[in-house]
Protein 1
Amino acid sequence: MNHQTDGDFVTDVYPTLSEEERVRVDLAAAYHLIEHFQMSDSIYTHISASVPGDNEYFLINPYGTRFGEVKASQLVMIDVDGKIIDDPCNMGANPAGFTIHSAIHQARTDLKCALHTHTVAGVSVSSLQTGILPINQWALQFYHGVSRHKYEGIALNLEERERLVKDLGPSNKILILDNHGLMTMGKNVGEAFTLMFNLERVCKVQMSVLASGQPVNPIDSSVCDLTYEQYLQFAELSQRDGFHVEWLAYLRLLEKVSPSYKE
């Protein structure tokens, strides 16, 4: 599975790939990027993507692989009831990952990718009652549209799925898993990853500011609303010819630092 490049720039992202292969390549890329930007948690946490044309099936990493080892051809295909459809490495899928991700794919068919992390900054913010504080421009991207789900222990109880999707709601793409970590979702892998990259930075800044113990400059609520709307407008502009332009930049990075993702 290869990308066509022109010098340093991706010009035709999927020249010969089927629709499913395209999703596989993007999903594997997201795993490598999470590893590259130091947002992974050993072999734990997950990124999943719906199989094109079938909302009952989704792709996820083989259980036991580090994120930087994930390859497009080795992703596990599983249905929303937990049945393994295809498992090239015979490694199965993490049960906790299945619970969380199947909930999203089953209930929110508008979302094609779900990304979950356990980072120091993300878990720290998820442990605060305040959640994300509107204290800087980056944070205002998440001034609205963020849901929270109360911690219920390691996600092995399938009954939790109903409560999780109820807390997420019908339109939000950001979910703080209280005392646990972060989730972002998108209509494609690029959107879900970009949201997580931005959210992680917001959490890092917030914890750094709080650690300073210094007074925070307040931002007027009307400016918070305005900036949030501006971020939404930029998000629309970032889609070009069906591709997320920031995602293409990340793929160019991977071509240099971790090209095995597309195998």
Note: The longest helix spans residues 189-212.
Protein 2
Amino acid sequence: MRYWLILFLAFLSPSHAAPLSHAVLNALNAAHIPEQNTGIIIWDSMSPAPSIMINPNRAFNPASTMKLLTSYAALNLLGPAYTWKTDIYYDGNLHDGTLNGNLYLKGFGDPDLTVERYWMLLHQLRLSGIQHINGDLVIDQRYFQLSPRPQFDDHPNRAYNAEPAALMVNFNSSEIKLTPNTTNVTVQAEPLPSDTHIFNHITLNNETCGEWRDAIHTEWQADTHQLSLNGNYARDCGEKSFALNLGNASTLAAGLFQQLWQAEGGTITGTWRVANTPDSAQLVFSYSSPPLAQIIYDINKYSNNIMARSVFLSLSSPPSANIASASDNVKNWLKLSQLDFPELILENGAGLSRLERISPYHMAQLLYAAYHSPYYPELANSLPIVAMDGTMKKRLKDTLVAGRAHIKTGTLDGVKTMAGYVHATNGHTYIVVFFINDEHAQAGGLAQDTLLQEVDN
């Protein structure tokens, strides 16, 4: 009864709230950010109403803090122990380790099918008794039904722009490592199909490092497996690495299959293609992902967009997954949970969007409800710890709030946000939401950090 009373009181609109401190206002003024372009909530988790509210009902772009909604919805709709499967089928006949037929990999949206786990899948396939495949590799992507979306920004090859797929290996990205030596820059890239040709046209110079990533231009040709790199790189940068979006998820899945299957002592005579698994195909086995609780840890600690988008799509109603179904199911769940967010706009559930919106008050309500729910430990554990790990690792070191707050951050052009929990020295846990939507938003970090420290005092 006490739990429901707290929730009921929480959902009432508070009658008044305190203003911001001079320190926070001064930090906003120094950053040229008007208070009207901020949305701020401070809420003691055991109180019926927030103590500070600034523009609580305005719809803001939350950037990556939208991952909090996706994570908490998934914990409720799927459960923390939920796992995704990848099914392996074959047609034709299998005799003495030789498959005279096609092998099918049918994906259901595993967000964390890394190279290591993909190799384990193929190792399990090899142990199942298949060694030689006299047929094709067929990749079944039909579970995710996605329409093409407009290009998000001018960097389509950046890993955060990778599109989710029902069968997606290693987040459909490759790590590119740049190492300067005496006269040039060495390029290493993995994972990539074994027959990839790398054309390195990077010029080494003696400038200061600066914005090194913007100076490197990449082009990946999925059909010919060619990677080209151009630009200038300063020796002063030392070794750096970045993730590259490889575009078509099936290309990497097929290329790595051939590479890893050969390493397992297997052979395949045919080519690869994308098609549906026939109803007559026989199931070899299903390979399971890590549980959802572990998945959201990686999503929120490191703000992994493609994992968040995959989880969001998985909130759809079967037999397939699409954005409209996932969005409807999340909104219906919110209403059933007495969380009615009429301003809520969901595009992909990851916050990598110019369209997504939620009010600071409703984000705080979500976190309030989560705090009083059985899934609070899983959600809080997934959030970056101030000054210690994830996207908050370098912020607020050597302060009282270091190690005492779990905060999710978000950043887009014109957007800087944070939301989470502060475990104050007085023994109370406070919900904190600080949204900035302003052309000078990136200068708002000091104001956000100042507020976090004040909550802990």
Note: The longest helix spans residues 249-263.
Protein 3
Amino acid sequence: MTTTANATFAVQGWDEKTWEGVPQQEAPDPKVTYAVVTYTYTGDLEGESEMRSFMSYNKGHDTHFVGIERFVGKLHGSEGTFVLQHTGRANGMNVQAEYFVVPGSGTGDLTGLRGEGHSELSGHAEHYPFALSYELG
């Protein structure tokens, strides 16, 4: 049976560097960057995570990204860790992303977790909505 977890997340840290290790304005086009991003989650998902992302910026200001996020905490009260794989794109302040639980990545009470979701975010905010449709066991 599929269950949906609804939560919000907040960005706690964002450390982004260009592929060449130079400031973004000095990097050649198309710019390729690597970011380490930390999050906190509240709601049906309670905990912290760290994501490692690669991003490609083009001259039209579209950004495409892929990322791996390791979550530590609780999902509907079940404690453990799991990994999400993200893909998406951003255009200005609008972000569209899809993500899924990496098979076999669940530990503790989250062993056997399977799930996926998508998000559409716009603008800067302190908290962003997050939903994960999942099965456990």
Note: The beta strands are 3-18, 31-43, 45-57, 62-75, 78-91, 94-101, 114-122, 128-135.
